[in-house]
Specification:
By secondary structure, the chain is of the alpha/beta class.
Length: 335
């Protein structure tokens, strides 16, 4: 049976109880999130892993693509593997994935029950228990309220992980998804010893020279399309070769930066990733012209996300000809 109840942050709700009951008596827990993870979903997974270890459970965190260097400061990140769960796994916990395929792991063959933590509106509710709330700022805030609801103590290491998630997904509390509940939770986490300055220095401020060069290329490859009220940036395979193939995580934040162009209703960042073109979309409802619903746009392109932050991917190649960038879709073989 699947349990799906919107999270009420003020009470011990039905889905919190269902998740807690699912974990009781279980020893071997596997936690994961989407490949090329970010601060919100990695922070959530590591925080929950810390809580479960405190209860004496055997916990494994496996994430396709591992941990980005900017998030290696998070407590517990050094124990993250890229392995799938073992056959004796009793419960799987997934953070920030709208569907199972987003993990990049072969989870469909496992019979272990799944606890699904997410705040994306297009979540497929694939879990045995679904803690999904699209109105909340981040998965980390969702996990914070869950821990409070089930009376799991939040200690320093958990606080650092959860606050990192909130800071990451709210743009240091500057994005429109920041709510009073977010700031209240952040205040409590800071009282546990987590510090926004430490998080910002690791995730936003500290950039090695190769990362700065990568950002320079992305900004140099940007332009404004007045007809579409869109600002766009592109990174091709040729760009990646010139930059000596930096990790894709170095481009985190580029789409938010170009979205600061005042006249743009939305921003698009396209990047070659092997055989795929991956796109990130951002909008800001507080701009004079208002923001476009980029979640709906991403859905049309086979992706998904929120109204103001979304993404997509499709097979193809980005090329530059006569100072213009072009998308060459990959033709699929007929079946």
């Amino acid at each position: 049976m699947t349990t799906t109840v919107p999270l009420n942050t003020n009470t011990l709700t039905a889905n919190s109880l269902a998740a807690l009951a699912l974990l009781q008596g279980k020893q071997r827990i596997f936690l994961t999130t989407h490949e090329r993870t970010d601060g919100d979903d990695l922070g959530t997974v590591l925080a929950l892993a810390h809580a479960l270890k405190k209860q004496g459970k055997t916990v494994t965190v496996g994430i396709r693509g591992g941990v980005p260097s900017s998030l290696a400061f998070l407590p517990g990140s050094s124990s993250v593997t890229e392995e799938a769960p073992t056959v004796d796994t009793e419960v799987i916990i997934i953070s920030g994935c709208s569907n199972l395929a987003r993990t990049g792991l072969p989870l469909e063959s496992f019979t272990a029950p799944i606890i699904n933590f997410d705040h994306h509106p297009d979540n497929a509710r694939f879990g045995t228990v679904n803690l999904v709330d699209a109105a909340i700022s981040s998965v980390a805030e969702l996990a914070y309220h869950f821990c409070k609801a089930v009376n799991w103590p939040i200690e320093n290491e958990m606080a650092i992980c959860l606050l990192t998630g909130m800071v990451s997904d709210t743009g240091s509390f500057l994005h429109s998804n920041t709510q009073p509940s977010t700031l209240y939770a952040a205040s409590n986490l800071m009282n546990k010893g987590a510090r926004t300055t430490t998080i910002a220095n690791n995730t936003f401020k500290g950039k090695a020279l190769p990362a700065l060069k990568a950002w320079g290329r992305a900004l140099a490859n940007s332009w404004y399309d007045a007809e579409k009220s869109m600002v766009c940036s592109v990174i091709t395979e040729e760009d990646l070769q010139d930059l000596h193939h930096p990790p894709h995580s170095v481009f985190e934040g580029v789409v938010e930066t170009i979205n600061k162009v005042p006249e743009a209703r939305f921003a698009l960042f396209l990047k070659q990733d092997g055989p795929l073109i991956k796109g990130s979309l951002r909008s800001d409802p507080h701009k004079p012209m208002g923001g476009l619903d980029v979640g709906s746009l991403a859905k049309l392109l086979g992706g998904g996300g929120h109204r103001n932050a979304a993404g997509f991917a499709f097979p193809g190649t980005l090329i530059k000809q006569e100072n213009k960038w072009h998308i060459v879709p990959t033709k699929l073989n007929p079946t």
